[in-house]
Every structure is written in C-alpha cells, then in structure tokens.
Predict the structure of Tryptophan-rich sensory protein.
Amino acid sequence: MTANANVRGRSGWDPWRRCAAIGTATLIPTTVLAWIYVLSTAEFSRCLTYGEQCAPAADVLLPIAWWTFWGSVAAGVGALVLPKRWRVMTWLRPVLAVAQLLLQVATFAAVVGSA
C-alpha cells in the first residue's frame, strides 16, 4: 500500500460528494448568468416594461425553472449531508449527484428558454 492510498482512504470526500459540492456551489452563479442573459434581451425587457411581446412559453418554463432549481438544491444537499456509513449511500449518492447536475442544466435551459 502506498502513502497516497492511505491518505485517500481517510478522506470523507468521495468523488460523488465532490461532484455534488461543485454542482451545488455553481447552481446560483449558473442561474444568475441565465437570468442576466434573459434580462438583456430586447424582447424580455419590452415584456417587463410594456407587457408586449411576452413569450408564451414563459408561463410554462418559469415554474419549471423554479421547481428544477429547488430540486437541484435538494439533491445536492442530500448528496452532501447524508452519511457515508449508510449502506444505501453507495448507490444513492451517485444518483443524487447526477440528478443534481441534470436539474441544474434543466434550470439553466428553462430560464434561457423563457426569453
């Protein structure tokens, strides 16, 4: 056994937990960037200012963005805080981490698509 294997074995951060931490940490900046893009479009600013040229898809996509954002938060936090000693976490943590990232992408797409 090498020294790196011993250090690696003591660490409480497996790759899936690290993936969930990165995804959760980048969720708000990703969403803010999507909203900056949407608010900078001429169509959306006209919709906000005058109520004209509003995208009909926004009525559907904005609630989707809301729920996917909070679903991403829940999946990311769940993957981070659930203890490693539970046997179910060997397969549940990867599922939660991948779900968090997919929901983050869905949030970004729903916000950008609402413009």
Summary: The chain has a mean pLDDT of 85.
